[in-house]
Amino acid sequence: METNLALVLLLSPFVGFLFNIFLGSKVSRNVSGAIGTLTVVVSFLLSICFFAQLNQNGKPFEIALFDWIQVSNFKLDFGILLDQLSLLWLLFVTGIGSLIHLYSISYMHDDENMHKFFAYLNLFVFFMITLVIGSNLLVMFIGWEGVGLCSYLLIGFWYKNQPYNDAAKKAFIMNRIGDLGFLIGMFIIAALFSTLNYTEIKIALSAGNADSAMLGLAALCLFIGATGKSAQLPLYTWLPDAMAGPTPVSALIHAATMVTAGIFMVTRMNFLFDLTPDIQHIIAIVGAATALVAASIGLLQNDIKKVLAYSTVSQLGLMFLALGLGAYTVAVFHVITHAFFKACLFLGSGSVIHGLHGEQDMRKMGGLRKAMPITFWTMMISTLAIAGIFPFAGFWSKDEILMVAFEHNKVLWVVASIASIMTAFYMFRLMYLTFFKEFRGTEEQKHHLHESPSLITIPLVILAILAVIGGAINLPGSMWLNHFLEPILAAKHEAHHLGTQEFMLMGIALVGAIVGIIWANAKYIKGGFVPKEDADISGFNKTVYNKYYVDEFYTFLIVKPINSLSNFFRTTLEPALGKVVFSFGTLANGIGTQGKKLHNGNIGLYLFVFVLGICAIITYLFIAQ
Amino acid sequence: MSPILITFYFLAAITLATAFLTIYSKNPIHSAIYLVLCFFSIAGHYLLFNAQFLAIVHIIVYSGAIMVLFLFTIMLMNLNKENEVHKPRITRLGAIVVFILMSIVLVTIFINSKTIMGEYDTSGEDFQSIKTLGKILLNEYMVPFEFASILLLAAMIGVVLLSKKEKTEKK
Amino acid sequence: MQVLITIVSLGVFCLLAEIFNLRKLLVPVTVIGLLAILGISLNLWAIDPSIDSNYASMIAVDKFSNAFNSLFIVLTIFLVALSGDFYKEHQTKISDFIAIKVFLLAGAVAMVSFSNLAMFFLGIEVLSISLYVLAASKRLDIKSNEAGMKYFLLGSFASGIILFGICLIYGATGYFNVAEIKDLSSGAGIPVWFPIGMVLMIIGMLFKIAAAPFHFWAPDVYEGSPSITTATMSTLAKVVAMATLYKLLSGLSSELIPTFEMVIVVVSILSMTIGNIMALRQDNVKRMLAFSGISHAGFMLMAILSLSTAAGTLLYYTAAYALAGIASFAVIIAVTRDSGNELTENFNGLGKSNPLLAAVLTASLLSMAGIPIFSGFFAKFMLFSDAIKAGYLFLVIVGVINSIISVGYYFKLILAMYTKEASAEKPAVPAVYYLVAVSAIVLNIALGLYPSLVMNLLN
Amino acid sequence: MNNILNQIGIENYIFLSVLLFCIGVFGVLYRRNAIIVFMSIEIMLNAVNLLFVAFSTYHQDAEGQVFVFFSMAVAAAEVAVGLAILVSVFRNLGSIDIDNLKNLKG
Amino acid sequence: MDVTTILLLLLIGSIATFFAGDKLASKVALIFSLGALGLSLYLLNLLNQGANISYIGEWMSSPKVSLAFKADGLSMAMVLLTTALTPLIVFSSFGNSFNNSKNFYALVLFMSFAMVGTFLAVDGLLYYIFWELALIPIYFIALIWGNGDAEDRKKAVVKFFIYTLGGSLFMLIAFAYLYSKAGSFLIGDLYQLELTGTEEFWIFLAFFLAYAIKIPIIPFHTWQAKVYQKAPTVGTMLLSGIMLKMGLYSVIRWQLPIAPSAAKAYMPILIGLSIAGVIYGSIVALRQKDLKKLLAYSSLAHVGLIAAGCYTLTLDGLSGVVSQMIAHGFVIVGLFFAAEVIFRRYETRTIADLGGIRSQTPQFTSMFMILVLASVALPGTFNFVGEFTVLYSLSQVNIWYAVLGGTTIILGAYYMLKMFQNVMLGETNTKVFAEVTTNEAITFVAIIAFLLFFGLYPKPIVDLVTPSLNEILAVINK
Question: Which UniProt keywords apply (chain B) (predicted)?
């Protein structure tokens, strides 16, 4: 029974995918959207069932469906594991997924390929579920690659636009770099423990006789995988570009769910990372650096979705910081709250874009507060949440990260705090530029300004509510999440006592956030500053605006050399190699041509050679001996 | 220096000289005549070996038949003039070099070879009279003897084939 | 002996046919006669060869000679069959042509059956003289004249060398009888004249099989001769000379001295390489096949290196090579009979205009190139295998490289047939060409499928 | 009967034959006139014949002389055929210069 | 009932096709190839039941060559690959019309016959004969029915033929040498030979030349791209789908067990070369202008990885190699077919002339996309199973091999997606692209279904080949 239910949970979105891909064009758009949404809802409901059951008996559900890949020293099942971690993830993936599906019915209503959109979304959910519920690393890898694929398909959804396709391709390839790391990590683990099953790895690790260097290498490789998927330094550059996709996609995949896969994986393998402190340091540093760099780039972006994208990168950086410090629960906590408010923000921005018929440049917005009140308020709540204002969800989770950082390393704490202040600043900059002051777009756009339909606003409201109360799941004191995840996490992360230090830190964080808000307020409301046109930006601002030229740097360092190498190979080396082979033929032919002169038809010459031949043979045989 | 040896040297000198002159003289007629002389000197050698029958046959066949054929052809082609252009100098030089080389090589190997000094076998039997030769030729060598006729037949047909005009030919 | 006698009788019959005006019947009757002789030859296997001991001192009938004789007869059948159409413009001479071919066969038979050097010498002369005549037989064609002249001059020069060699052997041993010579040759105290004589004789034979550096005549003569003569030279004559060379070596001395093997190795390498490389740049098909023949001579020389065991291999190789040669020449004659030259262009578009002939030619070229399932492959393989056993790995590698080169020119012709457009409409081809070409190639493939057929004959 | 070679020595005959043979070869190489070339070949054959006879005496054996008969037959046949070819070359080319025979080459 | 029946069926099929005439040829060929597929499935069933389906008969006594066909799991897997792809390839060509189609299809079936023979033969010379026989049909197929400038094509095809033939001839020397040692060509006897180190080295080298050219491993690959480009698509499919695998199969069956210590001693070089092929092929593929050429270089890269797997000498490596061979066989056939489908409509394979197809043909796009994804080894496709196992085996030897070999998943994605983007995406092309026909769709669906099914459930294939691979490994490690 449970197996069947688990299968339904897994396959329901897949059925939606199949329906939409094969029959979607034949049914009306609403039907295809409804089917797409319903199948995800089914998964969501089933997740709740399993969650409830787990809460009752506390026993994870694990089953091996069938043998999959077999190598000499171990066999891999296609297995399902539903434990605390995976159910938690399932819940918010399918939950937010359902909301975003719902949202998309309206958002994508005018697109001719709407059924495909839903097909891809469903497929994405399917792969995400696979990723989450797999009982071994390889099944996770299927999902891992699968979501990458869906991300590719959805970023390039408007495939007629080649830059979008470029962005999609970039996302896929950047992810693949990480995937290679993941694969190598798996290989090392498989070589060490002859298994990829989480439980078995855990048992094997607890035996504690593994080579620590190899373990470290494995952990590092897995982390490289995570940096790809979760857009960390140095592989983060695909995520901002991925905003080329439709906004619901950005909300679902590039904010709430897929990008958190890296965190999921690290949390899943916490028992491994706990044994490799060096790698944890690296993770923490990478996380903090990412948070800072992305936040700083976010300060000057003008595309509304780009701002959110960098914000996502930055927040993910914070989560990795927490992971690196061993505070898995904190990271998970932030993942969940972040999913709520970031999804809400993206959907809100989608609503804005929808209202402006595709305009994404904040310089051409402004004053939308009145025209789109629901959008404004829901986004405002989420902005407060992300900025870390008490008592919104983000405050609790971010605060925990800062606290953990403070405990471990003051430098990291400072970095994270600066990132938080920046976050507050650029988020409010976004809000001010979008919703306050006067509208800066064209008259025509102004004429058409309107609030989005209810299918769009309902998910916004639900998410906004969650962004307010989401922090409740792990309030200091109750620490429900901590307890819930205890069976999963090997090293217990002790709950914070709410002492003076903690309150002081909370205060500092809050003050920091407010400072950021005031700063933004001063600049954009009081100063009425509107960002300059691209051409006018100069100096350091220009560097930041151009994302520190990281893309250009990668292009220069990797893409260009590979391409010119390819050109060199194609135009020079290949023909040269070909010529080497041909040269034997040419040589033989050349000798043949020369030889023709020898066979000149002159009998005298023939006889001459004949006699010389005789002399040579006789000399060799009878004189030289 | 026995008379026989002197005879040998004399004949050998004639043989080589006439052979050389055959090649050297520009007029084909002279060549032919020198060749006849050469053949006669070779017949002289045969006689020296007491192979009378062979010597006679040799003269008949070579001087009588083959040389006549040569002369006939020369006349037919009206070649009795010294109009032959010499081969290019380099070719002639090459020919001379090869000639010398080959002579040296061959002579050297035969000098190196273990020559039989002293007594030669003398069986005392008759081995070169017409009678003996005839017996051998028509007993043991019956098959080759007959086969030689095939050879001559083939040559004959061949010559006919080469010379016979056909009705279809234009000439 | 019966074989020789019957062949000669058949030759005489051909001449008589002229007298009795039986020209129309000539070719079929000759073919039937040859088939009958083939029967006799094959029948000799069943009976004890020693029964024929009357002339055993001159003609030895043994497995070796029987096998090769049968091969020669088969080849002659094909050649005679082709002659019927080839000489149809020369009705007055046709009986001469056929008769000469039959006598040529007689010479060939004498060459491989000899047990006395006199028979050998006469045999080779019958063969050579017939070929001189055939080469020059297009009497109004300058090229044919030139070919005949060149062949004659060089050939008789080579005959002189052979004769000198025989003479020295006689001087050393006092015998012309092969068995006696062999006995003496292994004994001590044999004068150095003997090896010199052997070497000279072998050089003469190397000339006949057109091995480098004694090969120069072959391309010119092949090119200039009438095609059917070229076919005869490149198949029958070459095979005969090769078999004779083998028989000479194996019959006259028990084993080769290492230095002499070295000479064979060098000659073999030279022939293969020169033949193949020169063939690459030829436009004239006959000339190309001449060079190809030179390279095959080089291959066949490998058999000499494992003298005691390679008879079967040599028979197989020669059969494979000659059958492929017959098939290809049947096509070449059929295609070029009206064009007056044998340039590759004549073959353009043959794949479309005459698929069957094109297929046969392709198959025969593939066989010569040594592609399996054609017998040429097994032939080469067995040769290589023998050479490796004899310890000549290096030679085999050179052979292989040469095989690779050879593909280049064989495929040039194939390419012309299949990728180029035909320039002119091709007239119909008489059935006899199809018959000969197809049966030759079928035989070739049959040998490829059942190599044991031939291989076991001599073991 | 005394063996004549006791007085001359077989090696003398060998040298004589070899030289004669070489002169023949030389002629073949040296001259352009086909007839002279034929003659040179005849000289070569005769050199060998002479040696045959010498060896025949050396071995006191008739077979060598018998062989000379065959050799003569061969020479005669060759000359006949050769001259026939020569005549037809002459008819077509108007000359018997072997250096003019260069149509076939390459 | 033994495996010779498949051979006979294909041979008869080839002849029957030839005599069926131009109109019926393709159908007859399809029927016979399907028959061969059915027969091989039936024989597989027999094999699984433990029946003896091998055949050994005398052929010739000197040299001693037997008609020995042994069907173990490995051979049967390869035979199935051949007999499954042949009908697909034949069927895929239904949209084309060929001059002289009777010859064409007869050659296709004959080639299939020769390849099946290669996979089954366990007598060295017999194997070699089939190996060479397979070369002739493809030569003519590429030469006569190929595309592009005739002179260029000729050059490329002749080079291919001479080059591969040249390589194989060295293998022939090796066989001759082995024969002189063992007195037999039977694989069992050859396995048991005790060779010295030097001998093994040279024999290994001779085999390597033959296989490195056929597979191809760089720098012996120069024939490949041009021939793939110039050959008709059917020929390209045969070449890339099956014929390449002959080389890889032979490495496993012949080269490694006969000269194991050489393989062990030179493992780093061999794996290094193979992996260099992966990277090189991928990089060259990046900037190709011709679709078929790009696919050719992608094939070079993939095959390089497979070859690397062979030379790991581990069970994982070998079994991954088999999976990957089969997977690559299907996917590359599919991809070339996609190129052909495009060519049928646009008459061009130049990538720059394409683009904007997706909006006109959703079905084709999806199928092409899936094939592209399979080719970049997305999990869930059979290619992933193979690639994973191969990379895993490489990592067992040295983790760096896996890292370098693994770049294929990055570079592969790069060039394939770039190609897909340039060919399919973008603004709607001005030229009309008709949706795929039913026939075309069937071909695609068959390939995709196969890849996905075994991608999720590769066990049957792995179970089939593992025992025979273990036997071979036992010889290698003896």
Answer: Cell membrane, Membrane, NAD, Quinone, Transmembrane, Transmembrane helix
Q: Measure the CA–CA gap between D78 and C133, rounded to whole angstroms.
A: 10
Q: Quick one: B81 exposed, middle or buried, by C-beta within 10 A (0-12, 13-18, 19+)?
A: exposed
Query: DSSP assignment of A511-554, as one string?
Result: HHHHHHHHHHIIIIIIS---PPPGGG--HHHHHHHTGGGHHHHH
Token pair belonging to C424: 């002119």
Q: DSSP 3-state assignment of B165?
A: coil
CA distance E314 to C195: 60
CA–CA dist B8, A343 (Å, integer) = 126
C-alpha to C-alpha distance for C304 and C249, rounded to whole angstroms = 8
Which of D99, D101, D106 comes nearest A599 by C-beta?
D106
Q: Is A79 helix (H, G, I), strand (E, B) or coil?
A: strand
Cβ B161–C196 below 8 Å, yes or no?
no
Peptide bond between residue E467 and the one before it cis (omega within 30 degrees of 0): no
pLDDT in tens, C304-320: 888 888 888 899 999 99
**D51: chain C residues, CB-CB within 8 Å:** 164, 167-168, 171
What does the alpha-carbon distance between residue A380 and residue A431 come to, in Å, rounded to a whole number? Answer: 7
Instruction: Name the phi and psi angles at E270, rounded to 5.
Output: -65, -50
How many other β-carbons are positioned within 10 Å of the β-carbon of residue A74? 16
Distance of CA A74 to the CA centre of its chain: 30
Which DSSP string do the residues of E223-277 spell out, in sequence order? THHHHHHHS-HHHHHIIIIIIHHHHHHHIIIIIHHHSHHHHHHTHHHHHHHHHHH
E424 to chain A nearest CA, in Å? 9
Better-scored residue on pLDDT, C281 or C44: C281
| A565 vs E: CB within 8 A | yes
Q: What is the average pLDDT score of chain A?
A: 83
Identify the bridge partners of residue E186 per DSSP, sorted by sequence position: E123
Alpha-carbon torsion, ordered E21, E26, E31, E32, to 10 deg: 70
pLDDT band for B63, please (50, 70, 90 cuts). confident
- pLDDT tens digits along C240-286: 999 999 988 888 877 778 888 889 999 999 999 999 999 988 888 99
At a CB cut-off of 8 Å and minimum separation 6, what does A237 contact? A170, A174, A547, A550, A551, A554
Q: Is residue E386 part of a domain?
A: yes
**Residue C32 banded pLDDT, cuts 50, 70, 90:** very high
In this structure, is residue E400 part of a structural domain? yes
Cβ-based contacts under 8 A for chains C and D: 124
DSSP secondary structure code for residue E55 in this structure? E
Estimate the crossing angle of helix C375-389 against helix C285-305, to 10 degrees: 40
Strand E55-60, strand E65-69: pairing: antiparallel
pTM, two decimal places: 0.91
* Chain D environment of C174 (Cβ under 8 Å): 55, 58-59, 61, 63
Flag if A600 and D29 touch (Cβ within 8 Å): no
Among D28, D29, D104, whose Cβ lies nearest the Cβ of A601? D104
**Cβ(C131)–Cβ(C229) under 8 Å?**
yes
Q: Which residues contact A542 (CB under 8 A, 6 or more apart)?
A: none
A143/chain E closest Cα distance in angstroms? 8
Can you give the residue range of the structural domain that contains E427? 272-478
Rounded to a whole number of angstroms, the distance from the CA of A574 to the nearest CA of chain C is 22
Percent of chain A with pLDDT over 90: 0
Q: Report in angstroms the alpha-carbon separations of E106 from A281, A287, E24, E240.
A: 67, 64, 11, 19
